[in-house]
Amino acid sequence: MVQNSCDGCGRTVSVAGGMENLWTFGERDGSEGTAMTLELADGSEHLLCYPCLEALPDEPTAEDVARLEQDGETSTLGVL
Q1: Angstrom distance (rounded) from CA 62 to CA 42
Q2: Element (H, E) at 67
Q3: What are the residues whose beta carbons fall under 8 Å from the beta carbon of 45, sequence distance 6 or more?
Q4: 6-33 burial, b for 16+ CB within 10 Å, e for fewer?
Q5: Would you say the C-alpha torsion 3, 39, 50, 23 has a positive or negative sign?
Q6: Spatial CB neighbours of 19, under 8 Å, sequence gap ≥ 6
Q7: d(Cα 48, Cα 12) in Å, to the nearest integer?
Q8: Tens of pLDDT along 23-51?
Q9: Which end of the chain is more exposed for a tag (fewer CB within 10 A), N or C?
Q10: What local confidence, expressed as pLDDT, does residue 80 receive?
Q11: Residue 1 contacts residue 30 (beta carbons within 8 Å)
Q12: How far apart, in whole angstroms, are the C-alpha atoms of residue 49 and residue 31?
């Protein structure tokens, strides 16, 4: 799997999908440590872990992604 860091919290993540995940049988099923790229309505793309995806509002913006705490451990929105 490809290793990157989450654009939201900064934790190390593996990109979900592709042949690398074909034979995992649910061991790396989108829970902690895996991520996916989210394309927002404004055209920006962000690699986010699943906890960060859950912390975002229903109609996220690039500002919402920027507000995610960059501590490498939690996935919460910071206060502006």
Answers
A1: 8
A2: helix 62-67
A3: 37, 38, 39
A4: bbbbbbebbbbeeeebeeeeeeeeeeeb
A5: negative
A6: none
A7: 10
A8: 555 454 444 567 888 899 989 999 998 88
A9: C
A10: 44
A11: no
A12: 8
Q: What is the residue whose two structure tokens read 């490498």?
A: 72
The partner residues of 38 in beta bridges, in order of sequence, read 46
Tell me which residue of 37, 38, 32, 35 sits closest to 73, measured CA to CA.
32
CA 25 to chain centre: 21
Q: Which tokens is 65 given?
A: 């992604």
First to last CA, the chain: 35
| Residue/partner pairs of 36-45 with CB below 8 Å, 24 or more apart | 40/65
